[in-house]
Structures are given as C-alpha cells and as structure tokens.
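Hi V.,

You were right to ask for the full record rather than a summary. Here it is.
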Amino acid sequence: MPAAAAAPLKYVVGIDIAKDTFVACFGRIEASQQLRFGKQATFANTPAGFAALLAWAAKQQGAAAPVWFVVEATGVYYEALAYYLADQQQALSVLLPNKVKHFAQSTEQKSKTDQLDARLLCRLGLERALPAWQPPTPALRRLRALARERQSLKRQGARLKSQRHAFAHCYQPDARTLERLAAHQDLIEAQLRAVDQDLAALLDAEPELARRLAHLASVPGIGPATAIVVVAETNGFALIENERQLASYAGLDVVQRQSGLAARAARISRRGNVHLRQA
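Predicted structure:
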C-alpha cells in the first residue's frame, strides 16, 4: 500500500509580475524540509486574473496548511495584485528587489526567465520566514502620489528654466516663443503651489503623520521635502529594517567589480527606488 503524502508545513505561491501578465509557481515544504514545486501558470494582471489566481491556488492545495504569496516590488505593476490579495485576507510578502537578488546569488540558478523567477520567489518563501506585507494607509498612498507629482514638477521646472535661459541668450530669440516658455514656467510654479497646499492640508488632517515627518526632518541634512519622499516611498519605513536596507532600496549602496588584476572604481548601484534616490 503506498505511503500517504507528507503533510506540508506551508504552501507558497511565487509570483513574477509584469505590466500585462504574471507567472505564478506553486510549491510546498514538508516536515522533512523537502521542497516540492508544482505547476506554473500565467494570468492576466487584471482583477479577473487575480480571481483566477486564487481559484488556481486553491486547487493546488492538498492538506490544510498556511498559504503565502510572495511577489517582488518591481515598479508599480505589483500594486494592484498586492492590494487585491490583502483585501482577500491572503498572507502576502512584498520583497525589495535587492533582497531577491541576494537570494538568487546564493543559489545555483544562472538563467533568468519569468518562470524561473517565479520559482525562485516560491523557493525563497518556502525557505525563509518572510514578513507580512502591510498595505499603506490611504494617507500614505496620498502622500506618495503628491510627493511623486512634486518631484516630477520640480524636474520639469528645472529643465524649462535652463531651456528658457538658453533661448533668451541666443541670437535674436523669438519673442512669442519666450512668452510661451514663460507661461509654461508660470503654470508649473502654480501647480507646485497647488501640490504644496494639498500636502499641507493632508498633514493638517493627519497629525500623527505630520509628527513623524517633523521628527525625521529634525535630522541634520534632511529637510521637509526629503522627509516626505522618504516616508512616502518606504511606506512609513514598513519596508525597511535597517539603514543598510534603506541605502540598498534607494540604490545608494556601493558596489565594486574586480576580477584578477582588473578592478573598477567603486560606485553606487543605482538599482533601487529612483524617487527615493532623488529625494
């Protein structure tokens, strides 16, 4: 008579996500620490695809055991799925890209495909005890949207200022063009003032958030604008466990490449959150 299958300690669904679709890999870990990987499937990155993912994952389960979903925080494409799973009361871990990269380096995996990345995330979730993702509060989501809009307007304003200065000092500049550039610059400045007013109103309505920002801004070298970006992009530091992880998430960690006698100068990785790095 065949032996009964060992009861799993937990199930994990590793998810490699892109703009339009995502690949899911289902796996389990048994009491013997044996890892077993099951089927993989591709779903649309839409609400219908999210519902299909849950139905598919439920069919893969045998004995009762906790189910965890593991996804990498790449861009914004993971957000809709993460919020959906949180709303459905599913256990979810959202991992920073550098954490996944370091785990991948510890394995023998050399190739990189969507299917292999989903399996890697599944394996990471099976082997490690990962923190549960805490969705940002509506106030933090609003803060992040306003902070990103402000950064974008500041970049546009700086480029337009340089463009206007250069055009004004060229030979016989066209007066109508100068007027349009000036009007465009006035519009950006008006939008910046509107964003700052919305930020002030948000902080008036959220005194605890305002207190945390003021506390961070009290650190020498950190102004109010920088504090807003740091808190917004780290989900109130929920994604960050220590200062090294913060530097890595911002892409400010130092990397060095050396092979034999050839050595390159150390530089920052620039692989993290661009909004945080530009704060």
